[in-house]
Amino acid sequence: MNKFPILEIFGPTIQGEGMVIGQKTMFVRTAGCDYSCAWCDSAFTWDGSAKDDIVSMTASDIWEKLNELAKGNFSHVTISGGNPALLKNLQEFVKILNDNQIRIALETQGSVWQDWFLTIDDLTISPKPPSSKMVTDFQVLDKIISRLEDGGRKAHISLKVVVFDNKDYEYAKMVARRYSNIQMFLQVGNDDLSTIDDAELTYKLLNKYEWLTDKTMADSELADVKVLPQLHTLLWGNKRGV
Ligand SMILES: C[S@@+](CC[C@H](N)C(=O)[O-])C[C@H]1O[C@@H](n2cnc3c(N)ncnc32)[C@H](O)[C@@H]1O
Ligand SMILES: Nc1nc2[nH]cc(C(=O)O)c2c(=O)[nH]1
Ligand code: SF4
Ligand SMILES: [Mg+2]
User: Fold this and answer.
1) Any idea which positions bind [4Fe-4S] cluster (predicted)?
2) Which domains does the chain carry?
3) ipTM of this model?
């Protein structure tokens, strides 16, 4: 059986972002990413700082661990990273969840395709705006979106762009125009990843949420979009494993 590099398995918690925000879910976080976003809130998955915490697990090891944590108390699992789409054979884990009637969400940036995307219930693709210092390969992203559309998955996918500043906002608009028939989310960026002052962080993030909301509501070119904060950050700050 194939083994996967796993950094965290936790939950139940709420899905704090995007298309299934508020959903009770378990999290499986894989190690490794093909990007290195300037503001990545999960940089420990790829910057080497948590390399000793990476555990090599088979699909059934992961399933066992989820049940050890919360057997009977979950119906939804979110796979995030890092970039889980780097793992071709993750299909094996997806199949176990499918076979056990567990719904699956996936967080990925849209840089790599996998055939198992076609069986994900809530697939979030999060292309990266200029503040990340990453450059989107739109040829790759076009292909991923059209494969999902051709596979009849439109109701199961969404785009989510993190916005830190006006340039990111313009990028988000360009993405919304390019993929105008896909559900679109704008997400508040967290630029203070090290503070342990949760009250101050919440205050700052709510102010940014207000800025982003005001801007979007006044903009007729973004007539159909959802604007959200990271709910888990409002509740628990920068804490890991929640
Ligand atoms: C840590 S990433 C892992 C999945 C995948 N690599 C991706 O970026 O989509 C999960 C989500 O967190 C978002 N994210 C990362 N750092 C963030 C930050 N500082 N503020 C807000 N959202 C952030 C990403 O854009 C992505 O939508
Ligand atoms: N509660 C909670 N919701 C989340 N939504 C996306 C997350 C991620 O890191 O991918 C995340 C996370 O780390 N925690
Ligand atoms: S793509 Fe996702 S995990 Fe990778 S560096 Fe960017 S935010 Fe972090
Ligand atoms: Mg996170």
Assistant:
1) 33, 37, 40
2) 4-236 (3.20.20.70)
3) 0.99
